[in-house]
Amino acid sequence: MPTLAYFITPHGFGHAARACAVMAATQRRIPDLRWEIFTRTPAWFFAESLSGSYALHPIDTDVGLVQLDALRADLNATVERLAALLPFSAGRVEPLAAQVTALGCQAVLCDIAPLGIAVAQAAGVPSVLLENFTWVDIYAEYVEECPALLPYIEQMTDWFAAADYHIQTAPVCNPSANPTLTVPPVSRSPRTGRAEVRRLLAIPDDSPFLLITMGGVDFEHRYLERLAQFPDVHFVLPGNHSVMDAPPNVHLLSPRSGIYHPDIVAASDGVVGKIGYSTLAEVYAAGVPYGYVPRPRFRESDVLSAFVEKEMSGFAIDADELSDGRWIERVPDLLALSQRREVRVNGAEEIATFLERFC
User: Fold this and answer.
1) All residues at 6 or more sequence positions from 179 whose CB lies less than 8 Å from its CB, including other chains
2) Is residue 243 within 8 Å of residue 224, measured between CB atoms?
3) pLDDT per residue over 177-233, tens digit each?
4) Where in the chain is the domain with CATH 3.40.50.2000?
5) Contact 111/37 with Cβ under 8 angstroms?
């Protein structure tokens, strides 16, 4: 049985979403392919995204940025956790390399968790780095404020450079001079039609609805009552919600609602939320307008924002506007933007073609 390993950063759900798109596309080409997934991303996320053979190994693969909430990072906590991870010790790498070997993995993919590259090297199998940014790009923005990040930037620079293959997924934060492959945005594909998704959400076919998403990271939405000023517009908010009461046009969904997130994006008339790779890629594929919230000091944010302005319909919403609800006045503007529902090329298919060489 062909088998590949995937080491995925647990920072948010975006990297796991991109990895799931790649894994699903590859399994469509190679139905007997098995994935061995190493990450702390919760099991339910993979259960709802993958239908082929896989096993989940819950280990600490990466730190990323420790988040205070969806828009703010805790740099001191980030450094503390990095100190527990890096440099990679033989006691951490060698058992994982032995496990990868015992599982028969023919290559190791890494969605910006550099531990995967170290494990592949120790196991003597090829490593594939897949990214639109790395932590080197992100941490560099904070070095002046937090110089303690510098040694981890240096170590990660070396590990990312050690990957045997390097795939970049548009929009790319720091284009490589010589990538193995550069592909269009990578996104999970919808499975359920627009009418059925609206039925599941109890939204009439002729009513517009907006999806409000913070990329799987908790965020306190303090403006829910104000959404009632547009009673004919429905608002869908996935996530962990402490608020139980909301206007009748507001639909609060738990992370395990049973409704596949890419289906909600594709059935919507627009998306509002923190800009992040997987959200952007799924909105891009759906062709709906995007009211995006840039992330201050997150280097990827400027690149993603420029992509929206050039290739998509949408506009920026300031983080303060989102927090205090002023963005609600712009709901008619977002719904008035044109939709681009043409067929898009999904970069996951090109990556799947590349990965066939290891199987």
Assistant:
1) 166, 167, 168
2) yes
3) 999 999 999 999 999 999 999 999 999 989 999 999 976 555 667 788 999 999 999
4) 3-184+347-358, 194-336
5) no
* β pairing state of 127-131 and 209-213: unpaired
Task: Give the pTM.
Answer: 0.94
Q: How confident is the model at residue 67 (pLDDT cuts 50, 70, 90)?
A: confident
Tell me yes or no: is domain 194-336 CATH 3.40.50.2000: yes
Q: Where are the alpha helices (DSSP H) in the chain?
A: 14-29, 43-49, 75-85, 90-102, 115-123, 135-140, 150-161, 194-201, 261-267, 277-286, 299-311, 319-324, 331-336, 347-355
Output the pLDDT for position 298. Answer: 78
Cα gap 288→340, rounded to integer Å: 6
- CATH architecture group of domain 3-184+347-358: 3-Layer(aba) Sandwich (3.40)
Which pair of structure tokens corresponds to residue 45?
Answer: 């996320």
Q: How many Å apart are CA 114 and CA 93, to the nearest integer?
A: 11
Hey, what are 204's tokens? 């009439």
